[in-house]
Amino acid sequence: MRIRPRRLRTTAAMRRMVRENRVHRAQLVLPVFIVEGLAEPRPIASMPGVHQHTLQSLPGLVQRAASAGLGGVMLFGVPAHKDATGTCATDPDGILAQAVRVARQAAAGRLVVQADLCLDEFTDHGHCGVLAGDVVDNDATLVRYREMAVVLAAAGADMLGASGMMDGQVGAVREALDQAGFTDTAILAYTAKYTSAFYGPFREAVASSLTGDRRTYQQDPGNAREALRELALDLAEGADIVMVKPAHLDLVAAVAQNCDVPVAVYQVSGEYSMVEAAAANGWIDRRAAVVESLTGCVRAGADIVLTYWALEAADWLE
Ligand code: PBG
Predict the structure, then answer these.
(1) How many other C-beta atoms are found inside a 10 Å radius of the C-beta of residue 288?
(2) Cα-based distances in Å from 167 to 44, 46, 130, 140, 216
(3) At how many degrees (to 10) do helices 138-155 and 169-179 cross?
(4) Residue 274 has what pLDDT?
(5) Confidence band (pLDDT; 50, 70, 90) for 57?
(6) What CA–CA distance (Å, rounded) separates 78 from 53?
(7) How many angstroms separate the CA atoms of 251 and 274, rounded?
(8) 193 in catalytic set
(9) Ligand 1 center–CA 3 separation, angstroms
(10) What is the tens place of the pLDDT at every residue in 226-263?
(11) What separation in Å is there between the alpha carbon of 191 and the centre of ligand 1?
(12) CA dist 122 → 51, 126, 167, 206, 209 (Å)
């Protein structure tokens, strides 16, 4: 036998040299929750190790993220007051705009300050847009996204995460930003965002008031071709980065093969909680599982990974 693939696996040095994919800290983005009126950081029960933050605890966290060499932070704001149209989302002094200002100052250009551009944390019904009867009104929601984009860009966000899954959201936001002079504010498009049970713990993290589900706007997990349709639309509308969420790796690969912009993937709250729960029970090697799952994302084609393990993982990567 002359062909022996095992030859390249014999030593650590050999394996290291022939490794095709490795994750770099600069590829990792840490999602951060900032809660209005919170006195001190509060642990999120369903996400052990993750906290809701305050405007006071945010600078320290952002500085840690920058010192760890992370690529960025993605900010989610939780307002004290919610209403039908998510008024606080477009308040220049609202929790998210304030968080952007604080994070920008703390980051001092060392990482990319990103903000979630969606209404679900701000609406009392918990949907990602405004309602017309029982359904989310796509075009009325775009009006709100446009206003919100300009407020967050003015606060100093480098990049906005268009996560609402409304048709035309990237184009509408791009147009609003450009008209307001924010031509350099980038858009991270949630291109293939699926309805998922794995967002469960996130709902606690953002104190979601959602009672139903998001099946009329988020994608059906049974569909793959549809993701390429969404991809074509987002690219045509001017998306700077396209994202797949949750980490359905066949879709990460498909999206990466079909576009020429950076591809991101969101390793969501449920994946975090599952690994943490298994590790807490001694059923899984936590660190190895985290590194393996991050490597899987990159191997599938992701250039950027949003992950709640970003800070810790930065120390674990090669
Ligand atoms: C909604 C949003 C969600 C997540 C990020 N943005 C929840 C949802 O769509 O229901 C989930 C992230 C996670 O689970 O970690 N704008």
Answers:
(1) 11
(2) 32, 32, 14, 11, 11
(3) 40
(4) 98
(5) very high
(6) 10
(7) 21
(8) yes
(9) 47
(10) 999 999 999 999 999 999 999 999 999 999 999 999 99
(11) 13
(12) 19, 7, 20, 10, 9
